[in-house]
Design a protein that fits this description.
There is one protein chain. It is built from three helices and 18 strands. It is mainly β. The strands form five sheets. Strands 1, 2, 16, 17 and 18 form a five-stranded antiparallel β-sheet that branches. It has a four-stranded antiparallel β-sheet with strand order 3-4-5-6, with helices on one face. A four-stranded antiparallel β-sheet has the order 12-13-14-15, with no helix packed on it. A hairpin with a 5-residue loop joins strand 16 and strand 17.
Amino acid sequence: MTPWPLVVAALAAQAPAAAAPIDASKLVVSAPATVCSLSGRDIKGFPTRLSWSPDGRQLYLRAAQRDIWANEKTWNYIVDAASGTLAGTDAEPPWAAAYWAAKSAFQCPGVPGFRIDVETRVQRMVATNAGAGGAIAQNQADPYGPGFDMGLQGLAVVQNIQQAQDVTTTTLRLKGQLISEFVNTSIIAGLLYGWAPEGRGAMAYANHKRALVVMDQRGRRLEVRGTKGAMLPAWSPDGTRLAWVEQQSRQRYALKIVTVSAR
């Protein structure tokens, strides 16, 4: 019989080594590849969540539509990461909910000190200076604002209805960098950022130009070339791929992926 200490040593030798923390200054990122279209003829509503399956073979996409009273209707989709095949599903898979909870948290998984700072301020403003029911600083065409489905006229109507009021602005910052800003609406965690897997110590977020940026726990940053209109960034469970939704126009979106490695 093999002694137990030797068994333990053998198992330890077979176990994969823990992934090293990401150094943004040493990342090699591929050119963005389009996985599939997410436009109006492909999905209903606009994208609101993106999650990876534990095996990295599928992505879950939730889409939603809101009316001017903020009533929301949602649809669920599964995307094959290799082929780009998009299929509707009845409900959000359990693994998608668990992934989203970690991806959209305020604290980096496995690195407690690397966390988002939240600041809320209130100002007295008139309607023309306030966001239409929740503007997002990096996304002037806010898909979450009441009246959005009615186009620019609908947004104008909502703004005109709102008289002078107290405007509440909530900002999310990471190491001094603006990650998201919400005006007169609740925080939508994970909309414009996503944490890397546990222990990797990094975040991907959309900057003020809506380009995708990777920041590590030391504050080093790398802007991913060829990205624009980025939202819902999501790391694969092994940290080797980064997916996101690209907003191409008011009703046109695409799911894109890059591969990520260290040089």
